[in-house]
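Repro:
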Amino acid sequence: MIYRIFNNRWVTFGIAFIICALVFWHANKFFHELKENETSKMQIWAAAQQELQQMDIDSENLSPTAFNVLLSNNTTPMLLYNHDNDTYEVQNIPNRKTNSRKKLDELRSQFNSENTPIEVRVENELLQTLYYGSSPLLKKLKYYPILLILVFILFFIALYFFYKTTMSSEQNKLWAGMAKETAHQIGTPLSSLIAWIEILKSESINPEYVQEMEKDITRLTTITERFSKIGSLPDLKRTDIVSETKKNLEYLKKRNSKLISYHLDLPDIPVFVNLNSELYSWSLENLIKNSIDAMRGKGDVYISIKENAKEVSLTIRDTGKGIPKRMQKTVFSPGYTTKKRGWGLGLSLSKRIIEEYHRGKIRVLNSSPNGTTMEIILQIDKKG
């Protein structure tokens, strides 16, 4: 029962908010109570000062209680203004703050804004006015609620990211489980299809048909391997990205619309990177399919590979409708899609394959109403 309650993020956030609000309320209440106590203490001190002034007039002895009160306050900063000679008596204030009349007047204005001054009267005659500020402890507690609010904000941010990470982890496990189950389910009919191909080879059937069927079955095998690798760390091998790209494009060309024209700008020499062929072909296929969808099945796809001393850059440019600028940062988020049908997982998977598995980069290089250019950057493997 308790687990079910705390497993609901809104209930947990609600309970955390109530606890934080109660702590803040008690801290604020404690601050005001302490401030009231300090005001009462200063009123008692002013009463003792009044007794001292009365003693000067009546020549009476100062009571021990009043004497102790006047000596006991060694924390609260105060200014005692004498009206008869326009002077100040200073207590519990550093000398650097009281070494001029201007600074004393400024302190008086400051204390007047912090606390209500207390008048010292004898026989209804105003002799002195007590101006006082906040004690060091009260000053520290004054900023405590602000510090508490910052702590609460950090707490809620940490709680939010904890739930976000937990949910992301659960979703990843779910997708990995579904992918592996899909690979398992495809495996059975795929084995059967391979057996049927062997039978067809012994029949009087055009060999070209059988060869194309074998290519599709090989592709299905590759797709099965892709799904089986989700959720596990794939093996990366030193691979020529140029030949790997050509091989995948040859397969896609034959199975895409004849209205799509491919334009290749690839190096004549091998360029080696650490690659998982199945996952790389999946990313490449997702990007090209997105380009074809953006062009509505008709247009030009330009694919180029450029290299420098450390990196290789593969760009895919189409002549489609482009991606709005406000959407360019979210195209790789799970669920993003502009199609009526589709789950919006293609680019998200491509990003994970390139950045998490291959330690590379994938991004929208540029986009306009005349087309979009996507870029993949991978580290070159110079080890022979």
